[in-house]
Amino acid sequence: MNLPWHIYLMASLYIIAGINHFRNPGMYLKIIPPYFSNPKLLNILSGVAEIILGLLLLISATSHFAAWGIIALLIAVFPTHIYMYQNKKASFGLPRWVLILRMPFQLVLIYWAYQYTF
Prior knowledge:
- The protein is 74% helix and 0% strand.
- With 118 residues, the chain is an all-alpha fold.
- It has one domain.
- The longest helix is centred in the first third of the chain and has 19 residues, at 5-23.
- It is a multi-pass membrane protein.
- One of its GO terms (cellular component) is membrane.
- This is DoxX family protein.
- One of its GO terms (biological process) is methylamine metabolic process.
- Its main location: membrane.
C-alpha cells in the first residue's frame, strides 16, 4: 500500500470510532434524536459503516469510494450535532460553544474526506 500517512490517520479514526459504537453504545444512543426510529439499529449500522469505510480507505482501489461514503455518513449523522445542542441530556455537559463548533467542524471532516475522492 502506497498511500499518504494522513489517509492512515483518517482510517484509524473511523475504525476506532466504529468500534466504540459497540464498546460504549449508550453514549451514541443518547445522542440519536428521538424522531429517528430504532436507535439501536442506527447505532449498529453507523458503527459498522465507520469500520468498513475506514478499512476501505486503506485499499487504493476503494479509497475514493470510501471517502464518498464517509462524506455521506458525516452528512447523515449531522442531526445528532443539532440534537446535542438542543437537548441538555444529550450534550454530555459540554459547553454550548463546543457544541456549536462541532457543527462547522463537520465541514472540515467532509473536506478532509473529499481530498481522497479522486
